Amino acid sequence: MIYMFKRYFGGITNINTENNFVCLTFDDGPNPENTQRVLDILSKYEVKATFFVVVKLAEKYQFLIKEMVEAGHDIGNHT
Questions:
Q1: Domain residue extents for the chain
Q2: Is the separation of the CB atoms in 64 and 32 below 8 Å?
Q3: N or C: which end of the chain has fewer CB within 10 A?
Q4: Mean pLDDT for each consecutive 10-residue tract of the chain (79 residues)?
């Protein structure tokens, strides 16, 4: 697979590939109510996403981090 991408102010703004796809990211969590709802919807449609979490919240809601990992989602540090 060949990837061609453009950078804008140091970030990647688009990637040209042979296949169409969308990357979903979620920032500033986890939150027991909202994150759980998102995880349930992603699971229903068999979609993977990347969650950028705040360390203090990740420590507080470790069960959500575990659920993200077990479901095959990626996790990044937002702090």
A1: 24-77
A2: yes
A3: N
A4: 51 73 88 95 95 95 97 91
